[in-house]
Amino acid sequence: MDASVAIQVLPMMEDEKKLVSVVDAAIEYIQSTGVSYEVSAFETTIEGDYDQLMDIVKQINLMAAKAGAPHIMTYVKIDYKPEGQVLGIHEKIDKYQH
């Protein structure tokens, strides 16, 4: 695992129910990819192969548009280590789970 990516999808929609359904569609897409992921209140973190994760980032916007979002803001944070392994989700947060 050479990358960890945090994705925050913000559909620009006034109807909160529709907004939530677009975010749900994005998370369902991430689930369908088979990568390791963690959903939190503001973003979803995915981890795995850098190229696969970058493709997921690209597809997220397309999936949000297909789910009905007329305008999408997507914020992405990338932890990439081309010659080794990045710290995994569980290494970063397990000690804080209760």
From TrEMBL:
GO terms for cellular component: cytosol. Residues 5-97 form the Thiamine-binding protein domain. Belongs to the UPF0045 family. This is Thiamine-binding protein domain-containing protein. It comes from Pediococcus argentinicus.
